[in-house]
Amino acid sequence: MKTNQVKLWKKILISAWALFGLGVFIFFACLASVRIEDRLDNKRWYCQKEINDSLRLDKHYPDKEYVRIYNLNTRRYISPKMRWVSLGVSEGDSLTVYCDMNGKRGYVNLNTGNIVIEGRYNHAWNFSEGLAAVYRDNRIGFINTAGEEVIPCQFPTTQHAITRLGYAFHDGYCVVTNSKNECGLINRTGELVVDTIYDCIWGPSTCGVRIFQDEGKYGIMDIDGTITLALHYELIYCYGEHLFAVDNGVMKRIDKYGKVLTAFCSDYDFRPMYLPSDYDQEHPTGYFEYSVYGCKGVIDSHGEIVIPAIYNEVNQLEEHLFEVQMGYDGPWRVIATK
Asked: Cβ distance 325 to 307 under 8 Å?
């Protein structure tokens, strides 16, 4: 009798331990499952960007990467899977470029999240002033917000131009290229107002003009392509609201017609120079280093140019002896000023 009772208790204990072990296993299995799911979720949702108060762009991975537009109000996805969506729209424009899963470009409305123009272009650019550049048959044309081709795809382009040009209208004009990668300017009807003959025409600067370049010389034109300063300088650039022109290591401030406003300018204040023996730098030599667009030169105490600012480095060795280096890896050479 006692033997049977002992056996019964053993069975009960074994069953209890088995149930306890099963419970522990289920608990840790569930915990592991939750952690695995969390990790997968973290990998699936590694990037989220707010588009506006109602829409968010979610990027998914590690599967085939794609993005979708999520409506924060309805808590639903309202777009198909896309490779990417450009969020850099111009002020006043709501349509932006997207790339579908087949690599074709179309347009989506960032205010609503709706696809407006299905993906059908190999390249496309964002809208500016109501028009957007599209690439078809190796040529550039322009469409309106309804997807209608209002300027036919007639302007040849190259991969180099596709990479560097934004094909955006500014104040009614846009830069285009020919098959030789030469730049010109069109108006909103597609008419060439500046022939495609220049190496480069830049977009409007903060100085309110366009800078153009050809065969190593720079000039200035108005936004509409009217040339105000013919090709002349080695370099022209805009800083803030000021135009600067560089010629043979000398920089001057000019207006858009080429009138000199300041005859001599430097990137930064003139720096007094010292001989190598003057480690304490208490005895300047009377010469000063000046800089023009990152290149260095030397002037004397009277403001006369001793060495034009065309060198990467300039050091003073003796009273009237300097060493200069042309380019970062170029050889050093010695220049005597007297």
From this structure: no
Which residue, 317, 284, 315, is CA-closest to 301? 284
Task: Specify the CATH class of 45-121 in words.
Answer: mainly beta
Extract the tokens encoding 281.
């730098």
* Amino acid letter, residue 10: K
How many CB atoms neighbour CB 247 within 10 A? 16
From the number of C-beta atoms within 10 Å of its C-beta (0-12, 13-18, 19+), residue 141 rates as: buried
- Tell which residue, 281, 282, 315, has the closest CA to residue 298: 315
In DSSP terms, 48 is beta-bridged to 58
Tens of pLDDT, residue by residue over 119-131, are: 999 999 989 888 9
Whether the model pTM is above 0.70 = yes
Contact (CB, 8 A) for 224 and 192 = no
Q: Compute the CA torsion angle 261, 266, 270, 275 (nearest 10 deg).
A: -130
Place of tokens 């002896």: 321
Token digits for 83?
Answer: 């490779």
Which phi and psi angles does 156 have, rounded to 5°? -60, 155
126-166 per-position pLDDT tens digit: 898 889 999 988 889 999 999 999 999 999 887 777 777 78
Question: So where are the chain's domains?
Answer: 45-121, 271-336
Which amino acid makes up residue 329?
D
